TrEMBL record:
Alphabetical list of NCBIfam families matching this protein: PRK00142.1-3 (NF001135)
Its EC number(s): 1.14.-.-
Originating gene: trhO
Described purpose of this protein according to its UniProt entry: Catalyzes oxygen-dependent 5-hydroxyuridine (ho5U) modification at position 34 in tRNAs.
Chain segments carrying region Disordered: 316-337
Protein name stated in the entry: tRNA uridine(34) hydroxylase
Organism for this UniProt entry: Aquiflexum gelatinilyticum
Example of a GO biological process term: tRNA modification
Family per record: Belongs to the TrhO family.
Length: 337
């Protein structure tokens, strides 16, 4: 909706970052100063993030990314929302921008052919084509393309092992897809390395397909990694494919189990949600540490005392003074949750 004041940005960029710690601090400071919240990963191979903020703040953030020559090619998937999709800002350094166990592959050197949403739509139903979902179980069980091949994996790092089961498809056109495109960069590159000849990827992922091609033939909802949990994609021929984990009725309402030890991501209908107090089993319902269920199945961590400057070495306006020596970190009111 155009009148929604906030934007949610989903993006990634494979690019070399030499001093990841220094860039992490710079990036973190920019987010704080412009009230950007979300989760950002910085690694020697690039950037990966989902963030939210007021539209004007997100415009500044995108300009900040594009102003750096290393990330000038970054493409943003932009959605609108009525509030922040995150309560905090986290900028972390990790070995990879998506945990793949495929660090030796550089998508800037070789990867599958990128297909724009309309190109993917035109190609996906041809006889010699296989649509391959490279996401984890809890994601594709909630929603997936009609006729897509899914893999039994709990984490993307398990993908390489599962490719052994796809040897019989080497003569086909393989169309890979994921939420925003980042997993397909490595997945399609690995397929090519393993001898697959005709490999493609949905550029911008499911999110962009929904925006630009109406989401046709994507059945169910798309799991997303922010407070929304799941979003509608298909505006043409939507269909619910998930079933309630408790009673088996059709359900695309995604929740986290109220037992924090379990915390499984599962579809649970509203009726069972209340009856089970947000738990996915009797054992979880009886767990003494079970969280209070409020009908949403989403549990925000306690943000009391949250300090967005935590972990920073110094402030830009006090460049030579360590943060722990500053009496007033200068946190703006709109950064506190």
């Amino acid at each position: 909706m155009e009148n929604q004041p906030y934007s949610i940005l989903l993006y990634y960029c494979y690019a070399t970052i030499e001093d990841t710690e220094a860039y992490r601090e710079e990036h973190h400071l920019f987010c704080i100063e412009n009230n950007i919240r979300g989760r950002i990963i910085i690694s020697p191979e690039g950037l990966n993030g989902t963030v939210s903020g007021l539209k004007e703040d997100c415009e500044k953030y995108m300009a900040y990314i594009h102003a750096d020559p290393r990330f000038a090619k970054t493409e943003f998937k932009i959605e609108t929302f009525d509030k922040h999709a995150f309560a905090k800002i986290h900028v972390r350094v990790k070995p990879e921008i998506v945990h793949s166990s495929l660090r030796h592959l550089d998508p800037n050197v070789k990867t599958g052919k990128h297909l724009a949403p309309e190109e993917f739509k035109a190609l996906k139903d041809q006889e010699d084509v296989v649509i391959l979902d490279v996401r984890s179980n809890y994601e594709h069980e909630l929603g997936r393309f009609k006729g897509a091949l899914t893999l039994d994996i709990d984490n993307f790092r398990d993908f390489p092992e599962k490719v052994k089961e796809l040897e019989h498809l080497k003569g086909k056109k393989v169309l890979t897809y994921c939420t925003g495109g980042i997993k397909c960069e490595k997945a399609s590159a690995f397929l090519l390395e393993q001898g697959f000849q005709d490999v493609y990827q949905l550029h911008g992922g499911i999110i962009k397909y929904g925006m630009e091609a109406g989401g046709e033939d994507f059945e169910g909802k798309c799991y997303v990694f922010d407070n929304r949990i799941a979003v509608d994609i298909n505006k043409v021929n939507p269909k619910v494919i998930a079933t309630c984990h408790i009673c088996g009725t059709e359900c695309d309402r995604m929740v986290n189990c109220a037992n924090p030890t379990c915390n499984a991501h599962l579809p649970i209908c509203e009726k069972c949600g209340w009856e089970m107090e947000g738990a996915c089993s009797v054992e979880c319902k009886d767990n003494p540490e079970k969280r209070t269920y409020d009908g949403t199945g989403y549990y925000q961590k306690n943000t009391n005392g949250y300090n967005p400057y935590k972990g920073l070495i110094r402030r830009q306006d006090k460049a030579k003074q360590p943060l722990h020596e500053q009496k007033d970190p200068g946190i703006r009111a709109d950064h506190q949750s």
